[in-house]
Each structure stands twice: as structure tokens, then as C-alpha cells.
Design brief:
Elements (H helix, E strand, L loop, with lengths): L4 E7 L11 E4 L4 E7 L7 H4 L9 E4 L4 H4 L2 H6 L11 E6 L18 E6 L15 E4 H9 L15 H10 L16 E6 L5 H5 L10 E2 H18 L3 E5 L1 E2 L10 H10 L4 E6 L9 E6 L5 E8 L6 E7 L5 E6 L17 E4 L6 E7 L8 E8 L4 E9 L5 E6 L11 E2 L18 E7 L4 E2 L17 E4 L3 E5 L3 E5 L2 H21 L8 H11 L20 H6 L3
Parallel strand pairs: 5-8, 5-10, 6-8, 10-12, 12-23, 23-25
Antiparallel strand pairs: 1-3, 2-3, 4-9, 4-11, 6-7, 13-21, 14-20, 14-22, 15-19, 15-21, 16-20, 17-18, 18-19, 23-24, 26-27
């Protein structure tokens, strides 16, 4: 939790290669976090000393009648099915939960949660495998609920409300007066409240200290905690991620996506991921250079409130690109050519802006070329980016700006493209990646990120209800939430129903998350007017009744 350290996410085989003062937190058999003292920080440590991929990606939140649309009520009313998620755990790695809300209480007033790991509490007892935060089990939560002031016993809260809303959509207890019910109300919850990104991890990518965002490393540890609980109880588990990041190559090669791919092939473990809400944010640009074409230019409008931010250009092999940037005053940088280890700091003469330019010939995690541009004190106005062909080869490249609230709506590409905007880890192959649609009008939400991956692999997998879903809100009230995070939570409840049918009732004891993903794809509702799969709807609309019918 110490803000005087920078966190790096590394493969365990490299953890012993770091010299100088540092601490290590082991996550699992493959990954560890290296904690470097802040006095070793500088902006060009990315490139000069350390590769891009070990700096944890920064994630933002993916959300701001539905039961009938997904076939849930029809299945639950059928006495031969009656699936409510009993015996299944649903894990959330998010902003926490208001455990005092009636939606998470049993009829006798006891909690419907198995445990909470609050990564932000500094004076509690952490889980056995970790050395920070505080863990609260069912017994402690029930003690708190009996106390006149529950927060003196279990001081974990959800200041944002995002985690409370998503957990309620997946597994909240019904409230007929409020016309509310979670999809799988008998499932038990395991909740991780994420600690936000540290100041040095923010600074390396130009993120303001006031913005709510989370590092990839803390998400890793949260998932590991949920898995440890499921393994200890020997129960099936569904993990829901309602967060996303526009960092990376958008092809499922980042560390978190690789990790979730493995988890999704593990028996009795399913993962539901939100696709993101980036389709109409104008933060993606697709460009190309034909054979014989020397260069290509595109324009970026920078808003007055976005002084510090980053931008990425990804280029797949075999072609290579050099690049230049022109400020609004008309001043160009010199051409920056690809290298293995370099960081160019450029100061503009006619304005106070500076940029840090990393033209990485081969980014280690993907093998692709990455041009990372980091702005400091950027002048508002139109910036020109020129990519220059080095080889006489066809080149297709993609540029992405940060996701969510990391920048304002005033910063965007003038010739943007809404496709290939699914956020990480939604580009992973094996988890269920879910987009959101308006269940009242059967139309896709205009904000819902679109596929495919940058190499053309199908994503998202399916669409689920995600428009103004009724949900619990902190302080024991109800509200509504819209977005792909809400759709992922809805789908996590459906996955819990399938886990109950398969594992708890013994119909398919070794079912994996990849199996559940493919079953939901098989049973999805598809309209005759469309061709499937497509980059907007994936393979269709989630329908658990259709999935069960497809097994007959």
C-alpha cells in the first residue's frame, strides 16, 4: 500500500534479476510484484531500464424486465430445473460491497457473503497468502450485522457503489416491491475491494492522482484470493470482472488475459469479463500504409483538461514504422526510429509541452512493434502524428487512447473507428466476454465496445442486458446501472446457474469456464436479420433456456 513505491508485474523467472533495494510480493507460481522505491523513478525508466509490459496496465470501471430476456425466469419457474446458483461462489474484484444492504442478507438477517478482502484497510488481518489489506469472514460479518454500529466491527465500505451494484445484479436477494432480483440469488459471494493505483504507477502513464483506477497487479491478487477460497471450500466458482483497460495490443496477449485463459480451462472455474464502453468515445484509430507509400498522418484533438496522458500505436510484424509528432504550434519532433531499449524526451520550443517517445521495435509480451507516446503539459488543440514506412511492405496499425475516465471526452481522434475497442482482458480467448444491449428495445448500447481483436478473433462472445438494470446501491437503497460491467454481472449469474446444473447436481462435474462460454454461445438467441458472429453482438444474445434446450 506504500505510495512511496512503484509496482512492477513480472514473471517469477525474472524476479531475481532486479538489483538494488526492492521488495517482492509473490502472486502465484508464475507472477510476482516487484516494489521499487520511489527515488528510483523517472519517466524514461520505461524503455531505458525496464520493458513496457512489466508496468501494470491501469484499469477503469465498465458501468454506470432483464431476467425475462435471458430466459432466467423460465428456467427458475420450471420445477425440474429451478436453478438459483445454490452451492456456487461468485467472486467480484471491484470497488467493494455494502454488506449491510438488505439485498445481501438472508431471511434471518445473516450475511449472504462468504468473505471480503478489503485491500485498502491498513490495520486489519490480511488473507493468509498476502501481506496487506484485511480479510473478513462470514462469522465476523454476521457479528457486525448484529452490532448497533456494524462498521466498528467490519469497517469495509463501497464508496463508489460499482461493486455493490454488480454483485446485486448477479446474486442479490429479491425485493418484489422494488421489482428487483439478482440472477442467481442463492449463490454465495466472495468480494475483493481493490486498492487504487499508486502515484508512481499513475505518473508513468500520465494519470491524475484524483482519477479512480486500479493496477493490473492488484486485480491479479484479487483473483488469486477468490481462487484460494474456492479451492479451500471445494466449490465451483464464477469470477466477474467489470473493469477494463485500453492498454496493450487488443489481442489477448497481456499477462492478465493469459492468466484468465488458463483459469477458464480449469474444471469448475468460469470467468465473465465486460467488453468495455469505448465504441463511441473516439479513442481508436486504424491506419495503413500501402506498398510504396512513404508515410501517413492522422490527427489527435487534445482537450484543455488533458495535460498529461498517454497514447499507444501497435504495429504487427513484419513491417516497421518510424514516427514524428507535430504540436498545435506547428513544431515537429525529429523522426523516432524503432529500437529495443530507448526513450526520447522531447521539449517543444514554442510551448511548454514535452513528450516521452518509446518506439519499441519488439514489445516482449507480444513480439509486435509498440510506439508509446506520453504527453506532459500538452497544449490543447490539434496534434498531428506521422508514421513513416521503413520497409517497402504493407502496414496496418492501430492507435488507442486510454479508457474510461483516464481522459476527458474532449480528447479524441478526428477520424476515429469504433471497432477493435473491446478493452482488456475482454480480448482473451477462453473467458466469456460480454457486451451490453438495451433489453427494452433489443438494440445494442451505442457505448458498448466492438470487436474483433486486432488479429480478427471473434470478441465479444455474447450480448446480455445492460441498460438501466435495477440494482442495490450503498446505504440500503435501489437504483439502476448501465454498461457492459452490468451485462457481465448478469452473465455471471447465468454462469452460476449453469455451474449449479453441471457441478452441484452432477450433470457435468468437470465443466470449465470455456465449456460454459461455448454452451452460452450455442444457446444464444440469434435474429434472422443478422449474420453471426459479428463484431457488435458476437454470437447473439444470452439465453440460458436456449442453452439448456441445446443439450436435449
Amino acid at each position: 500500500m506504500d505510495e512511496d513505491y512503484l509496482d512492477l508485474l513480472v514473471d517469477n523467472t525474472l524476479a531475481n534479476n532486479f538489483s538494488g533495494k526492492h521488495e517482492v510480493t509473490r502472486i502465484n507460481d508464475r507472477n510476482s510484484v516487484i516494489h521499487l522505491p520511489g527515488e528510483r523513478f523517472d519517466m524514461c525508466m520505461l524503455g531505458n531500464r525496464f520493458p513496457y509490459h512489466i508496468f501494470p496496465s491501469i484499469f477503469t470501471l465498465n458501468s454506470l424486465v432483464s431476467l425475462e430476456k435471458s430466459g432466467v425466469n423460465a428456467v427458475q419457474r420450471n420445477p425440474n430445473l429451478a436453478l438459483f446458483g445454490q452451492g456456487v461462489l461468485i467472486g467480484f474484484v471491484d470497488t467493494g460491497i455494502d454488506y449491510r444492504h438488505e439485498a445481501f442478507l438472508n431471511a434471518d438477517g445473516t450475511t449472504h457473503l462468504f468473505s471480503i478482502w478489503d485491500q485498502t484497510i491498513v490495520d486489519g488481518t490480511p488473507p493468509s497468502r498476502f501481506n496487506f489489506g484485511a480479510e473478513y469472514g462470514k462469522q465476523e460479518i454476521n457479528m457486525a450485522l448484529r452490532d448497533t454500529d456494524p462498521l466498528t466491527v467490519v469497517p469495509s465500505t463501497d464508496e463508489n457503489g460499482h461493486g455493490t451494484m454488480l454483485a446485486g445484479i448477479a446474486a442479490g436477494h429479491p425485493n418484489l416491491i422494488k421489482d428487483f432480483s439478482g440472477v442467481a440469488p442463492d449463490a454465495e459471494l466472495v468480494v475483493v475491494k481493490l486498492a487504487p493505483a499508486k502515484r508512481y504507477n499513475r505518473r508513468i502513464f500520465g494519470i491524475d492522482d484524483t482519477v479512480l483506477c486500479y493496477p493490473e497487479s492488484n486485480i491479479f491478487m484479487g483473483i488469486e484470493y477468490i481462487m484460494s477460497v474456492a479451492q479451500r471450500l471445494n466449490r465451483p466458482v464464477v469470477i466477474c470482472l467489470g473493469l477494463g483497460s485500453s492498454q496493450g495490443d487488443h489481442d489477448g496477449n497481456d499477462a492478465l488475459a493469459v492468466y484468465l485463459n488458463i483459469l477458464s480451462t480449469t474444471p469448475r472455474v468460469a470467468v465473465c469479463v465486460s467488453a468495455g464502453n469505448e465504441a463511441n468515445s473516439r479513442r481508436h484509430y486504424q491506419g495503413e500504409l500501402e506498398v510504396g507509400q512513404a508515410s501517413s498522418e492522422f490527427e489527435l484533438r487534445v482537450g484543455s483538461s488533458d495535460k498529461n496522458f498517454s497514447m499507444q500505436i501497435w504495429q504487427k510484424s513484419p513491417s516497421r514504422l518510424a514516427m514524428q509528432i507535430q504540436s498545435p504550434s506547428g513544431e515537429w519532433t525529429e523522426p523516432i526510429y524503432p529500437k529495443f531499449n530507448s526513450c526520447v524526451e522531447y521539449h517543444y520550443v514554442f510551448e511548454p509541452a514535452r513528450v516521452y517517445l518509446n518506439n519499441i521495435m519488439m514489445e516482449e509480451e507480444t513480439g509486435d512493434q509498440l510506439i508509446l507516446i506520453r504527453f506532459q503539459n500538452a497544449e490543447s488543440g490539434i496534434w498531428n502524428i506521422r508514421v513513416i514506412a521503413i520497409d517497402n511492405l504493407y502496414s496496418h496499425f492501430d492507435a488507442w487512447l486510454p479508457s474510461g475516465n483516464l481522459i476527458s471526452e474532449e480528447t479524441f481522434f478526428l477520424e476515429s473507428d469504433p471497432y477493435v475497442t473491446v478493452t482488456a482482458p475482454g480480448n482473451a480467448r477462453n473467458p466469456l466476454t460480454v457486451t451490453a444491449y438495451n433489453q427494452n428495445s433489443d438494440s445494442i448500447l451505442i457505448t458498448s465496445s466492438r470487436g474483433y481483436t486486432s488479429s480478427g478473433v471473434v470478441t465479444p462472445d455474447i450480448a446480455a442486458p445492460g441498460f438501466e438494470l435495477t440494482c442495490p446501491v450503498p446505504n440500503n437503497i435501489y437504483g439502476s446501472v448501465t454498461g457492459t460491467g452490468a451485462a457481465a454481472a448478469h452473465s455471471a449469474g447465468i454462469a452460476a446457474m449453469l455451474m449449479e446444473w453441471a457441478v452441484v447436481r452432477g450433470n457435468y462435474a468437470t465443466i470449465s469456464g470455456r465449456d460454459i462460454s461455448r454452451l452460452l454461445i450455442r444457446g444464444a438467441t440469434r435474429w434472422d436479420t443478422m449474420i453471426y458472429p459479428n463484431p457488435i453482438w458476437g454470437y447473439g444474445v444470452a439465453d440460458i433456456l436456449g442453452t439448456l434446450k441445446s443439450l436435449t
